[in-house]
Amino acid sequence: EVRLVESGGNLVHPGGSLRLSCETSGYTFTSYSLIWVRQAPGQGLEWVAYMVRSSDTVYYGDSVKGRFTVSRDYAKRSMYLQMNSLRDEDAAVYYCARISPATGYLYMDVWGKGTTVTVSS
Amino acid sequence: EIVMTQSPGTLSVSPGEGATLSCRTSQSVGGKLAWYQHRPGQAPRLLMYDSSTRAAGIPARFSGSGSGTEFTLTISSLQSDDFAVYYCQHYNNWPPITFGQGTRLEIK
Q1: What is the pLDDT of residues A87-99, one digit of tens each?
Q2: Is A95's CB within 8 Å of B96's CB?
């Protein structure tokens, strides 16, 4: 069974930092790109960052560019989201998801259940 | 950036009836559109990709159609666990990857 499990969500002050993890299992880790998507309270889904499987190139959404960094640990089958300079508007449930393996077809075929980030003073 | 517009915002339907959800894109995305179901507290679930291809394990009462800028998700004979929020997402000409604002399907 393919599984993605997020962790690391917490309460953080504005301007603070947090690192989220996405641990995967049940599939060939190197064969799939991964993505972070978030959902702020009462809002819809917003793309945060997308890491390409073959090159580890990362694309970031405009709202997080320069503040968030994605990395991957192949040995641990995990992806990470380092979030710095957090703002009130970064408060959300953060999901990681697996991207379809078909080149250029960026839809998410498996999602985790999410981890909650709260930003408050 | 391609803007996604879903309608209606909320749809009230009785169990056993059908529902039709719409998604419009601000420019053509060909057939590169996906639909997701999101129940509260759960992981979003891929329903449809390439506009009309059902994802693995999705029952045949879910169907998708459309191309270009107009897309539809149809659910026939609604069951209790179908009441959720539904999102469309394009994957043509990215980044950015964008989602619609969602349609909430609620029990009438």
Answers
A1: 999 999 999 999 9
A2: no
